[in-house]
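Could you please consider the sequence and fold appended to this message?
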Amino acid sequence: MGLFNNAIQMRPSPSILLFTVLLGAICKLRQYSTVITMFKAMDSKGIKANTVTFATLINCFCQMGKVDFGLAVVENIFKSTYEPHIFTTLLKGLFKENRVKDAIQLFNKITENGYASVLSPARSSAWVREEFQEYLYLKYPSSLGYTV
């Protein structure tokens, strides 16, 4: 935490890469609440997160069983100019909690907003949709009534 505390006070602020590496290392130690606290401190100091930072934050929420907080982060990303490369982490978190309906709703929002290529680069939206539908059919047969 000493390095983080020193870095957050520096002017000009160090690159977001330093903060993202620190958050990632602490996340790997399963200190999820510490990562969230550090992220809030960065945000309050005006340090702008990147997509990897957001992915780390969402991963922490999912690991803590707080997928709804991860969804809130995604809502902020949809409203911002960030390129959201973090959706697979949140989809996995929803499936882990057996929240298939929520995963389908997020998937639909992702594809409706034109981010299907983030889920599978170099593939068409139709292909991504078909693959997702097949995954649901194989893993969650009860999801057949949902629209993808």
